[in-house]
Write a structure and sequence with these properties.
alpha/beta, seven-stranded mixed β-sheet, globular, about 45% helix
């Protein structure tokens, strides 16, 4: 079949530059790769609980048969969203099949031609794609730079929205949430926080921990990471939910998730409440890793620890040696990060043993110091 010529050229360029992406079947090994921070996705007790749920309610496995506005809504959805809103001490919640789709829906419709969306330069790609679907002007501010954000706010005419993450997964650092919310209030701007990598790891998330849930416009929470499930939710006011139902195209025109996914999210919340020690065990492992004194770009409580190597060659060598020892990690190359800032992304988990962390650290140290 004849294909557009430029496809071949850009793919060849990716291969030459070493940043070609391909799908791989995940090999078995020690997991320092996945976002299953609390080990729930592989937790046998949780899996058994989900199986028991299906035995009682096998109809949850059936497809939703349509969008939420046609035939896809159900009592399972209504009860789950009410439960999630109550957990996060907010008026409403609206579920989506993924965090990407939640951000796409939210940012595509919240702002119009006379609005501005100010985004942290390291915010997730889904936010940028959502902004591209809107008619608003988008401006980037330097990562976690309050002075630059204030400069942009002071030079913005008309309403402004601020898009940030509470924990950035490619750097492992936290947003100064309280300072950003306070600054936004001074300029009459609205803040939207993506909590994808913080919720679960830090209980109900950092927005809730700092009691900011009623001071931000919306919080996006995803369930494919620390919750070990699938899907996402936007929590906020009842007006926010009503607005999204009426104007968010990715919500309006998408088939709803099956009931199993929705009820599974509720079960994951309840499982975390039953086993609160999972979070503290994760923090113990993070602390243990950092005791090896490997220079990390990340902050001390982050489950994501980022290590940069002197050269891309040393990074690739370290990854290869780790792979030989069946240790799975994730090297990050351009264009996911800026050229010259390639790094090793280490995801720490509740279930990693001290011996596994020791082996990981030893290989990293050897490749940081040896030629």
């Amino acid at each position: 079949m004849n294909q557009p010529e430029h496809w071949h050229k850009v793919l060849a360029s990716r291969r030459e530059n070493g940043n070609y992406r391909s799908l791989k079947i995940q090999e078995e090994g020690i997991d320092f790769l996945s976002n299953d921070y609390l080990g729930i996705a592989g937790n046998k007790a949780f899996q058994k609980h989900l199986l028991e749920l299906l035995n009682v309610s096998p109809e949850l496995l059936s497809g939703a048969t349509g969008s939420r506005l046609i035939s896809g809504n159900s009592l399972v959805y209504a009860q789950a969203e009410e439960f999630i809103a109550r957990i996060h001490d907010l008026e409403s919640a609206l579920l989506f099949p993924s965090g990407y789709k939640a951000n796409l829906a939210l940012f595509s419709c919240i702002a119009g031609r006379h609005h501005t969306i100010l985004v942290d330069e390291l915010v997730h790609r889904s936010v940028h794609d959502g902004c591209a679907l809107s008619h608003a002007q988008k401006k980037k501010f330097r990562h976690n730079d309050l002075n630059h954000l204030e400069y942009l706010l002071s030079h913005t005419i008309g309403p402004a929205f601020i898009a940030i993450e509470s924990l950035y997964s490619m750097d492992g650092d936290f947003a100064p949430l309280e300072d950003i919310v306070t600054l936004a209030e001074q300029y009459g701007a609205w803040v939207i926080v993506d909590e994808a990598h913080a919720v679960g790891v830090f209980g109900k998330g950092l927005v809730h921990r700092y009691n900011l849930q009623n001071r931000v416009l919306a919080t996006v929470i995803t369930y494919g990471k620390a919750f070990g499930m699938q899907g996402a939710v936007v929590v906020g006011s009842s007006v926010l939910k009503e607005y999204l139902i009426n104007f968010a195209s990715p919500f309006i025109y998408s088939t709803a998730m099956q009931g199993y996914q929705v009820q599974g999210i509720v079960e994951a919340y309840q499982f975390l409440e039953t086993y609160p020690h999972l979070g503290s065990e994760l923090q113990n492992n993070i602390e243990y890793f950092r005791k090896h004194q490997i220079h990390s770009l990340s902050q001390s409580m982050s489950p994501v620890q980022i290590v940069q190597f002197p050269t891309v060659g040393k990074l690739c060598k370290a990854v290869q040696e780790l792979k030989q020892q069946k240790i799975n990690t994730y090297p990050i190359f351009s264009p996911t990060v800026k050229a010259g800032s390639e790094r090793l992304r280490i995801a720490l988990h509740q279930f990693n043993s001290p011996a596994e962390i020791d082996e990981l650290a030893c290989i990293i140290k050897n490749n940081l110091t040896h030629d």
